[in-house]
Amino acid sequence: MEDIVSLCKRRGFIYPGSEIYGGEAGLYDFGPYGVELLNNIKQSWWRANVHLKENYVGLDSAMFKHPRVWEASGHVGGFSDPLAECKKCNNRIRVDKELEKIGVTADEKMSEAQLNGLFDANRAKIKCNVCGQQDFSGVHAFNLLVKSNLGDFTGQDERPVYLPGEACQGIYLNFKNIVDTTRLKVPFGVAQIGKAFRNEISPRNFLFRTREFEQADTQLFVKPNHNVEAYEAIKQDRWNWYLSLGIKETNLRWKQHENLVFYAKDAWDIEYKYPSYGYDEVEGIHDRTDYDLSQHMKFSGVDLNYTNPQNPQEKYIPWVLETSMGMGRIFLAVLSDAYTVEVTDNGDSRTVLKLSPELAPVRCAIFPLLKNKPELVAKAREIYAALSKNFVCEFDDNGNIGKRYRRQDEIGTPYCLVVDFDTLEGDKVDTVTIRDRDTSEQTRVNIADLNQHLVV
């Protein structure tokens, strides 16, 4: 994982947030290649969950919401992590994660008193990860919502608002709008990619646990008790999507939640085997019954019952089947799965990101053989301009061809195209050499056929 993090910085995938000021824990910026990879993952997800499904639509809801939304969702009263503080250096630890490291499970439904009892029984096994001491405060619940200010000019904090603790609430808030303004009938789904913010006690593991991140969520609204078959279909559909990205199935596994919240019928995680970190959640798939819509109907006073258009006497609160994926986590999983170090025939090592062409930040890099030959440069730029209408391309004339290949290997470019003197004259005129990233094999291709050749 250290090598992957290093490559992310060196090749412009991920930068530490506010780095020139010393950085800020749990915040990262997506660089030039990172934002292209992230956008490609988003497009793949959106296509799979909206464009290819007749009964799904998309949504982009506002981040700020009425304060009562977060009361109804339970975030104001119950969205917290157990925190303890080192009395020697004031470092804060997340108690449940520290207990997990020593094989002790802390149930998220435990009270503060229960957590303190569990922590006290295991204090001798837990050390501060900064100073190494074992002198901690008691455990208390720390709410993860990030408080903000919107339209409150009194300075009295009379109407606190919050940045979203999760992205999906806007889907529930717009359930009635979508029913009223579309021809969708239950069962139907709504998909959204949105920002979420959490006041993490100890952000860690690079992109895996951050304070600002994106979630890709779907909510399928189904008739009450019509959940089992649809839930299994969703699980299979989500599993297949990961395989479609090129992720190795051996690095994926299912994990069922043992301790469900009171309103849930079932909950499973898709876990990925991250280098150094091991298996951990990349996406959660939850059977939430009618809890979410019922809560918002209770707190807002608005009737959110669905009326069956074929039988107006039939009214009910739909149940919700949810999928929720962290964009940073799938980004890191895709990078980890693609990261490959090969030893060449001459004993040198070659670092390659074997990304699927659909995800690669750059589909094709165009090189003139020599940068000091205007005729080669002009032809290469002509090809670059033409291909860029359909693909993300990169023009590179810096350094020898071997170094250029290595740079493109490290960012995952599947094809490198070289314009040489044969391109301009002789029996190979109007052809170029294309080099395959994974095999390093080179073939001669007609310029007129390049668009077709780059389509996978």
Structure description:
The model has no long low-confidence stretch (mean pLDDT 93). Helix 2 packs across helix 11 (327-338). The longest helix is centred in the first third of the chain and has 20 residues, at 32-51. This protein has 15 helices and 23 strands. The protein has a 7-stranded mixed sheet with strand order 3-9-10-16-13-12-11, with helices on both faces. A 5-stranded mixed sheet has the order 20-19-21-22-23, with helices on both faces. It is globular, with a radius of gyration of 26 Å. The chain has helices spanning 2-10, 32-51, 67-72, 75-78, 95-101, 112-122, 169-173, 175-181, 228-244, 291-300, 327-338, 374-387, 401-411, 421-424, 450-454, and strands spanning 14-16, 28-30, 56-58, 80-85, 92-94, 140-143, 146-148, 161-163, 188-197, 212-222, 252-256, 266-274, 278-287, 306-307, 315-316, 319-326, 339-343, 349-353, 364-368, 393-395, 415-419, 431-436, 442-446. The protein folds into 3 domains: 2-70 and 146-335, Bira Bifunctional Protein, Domain 2 (BirA Bifunctional Protein, domain 2), CATH 3.30.930.10; 80-143, 2-Layer Sandwich (Herpes Virus-1), CATH 3.30.40; 362-454, 3-Layer(aba) Sandwich (Rossmann fold). It is of the alpha+beta class. Strand 22 (431-436) and strand 23 (442-446) form a beta hairpin. The chain starts with a helix and ends with a helix.
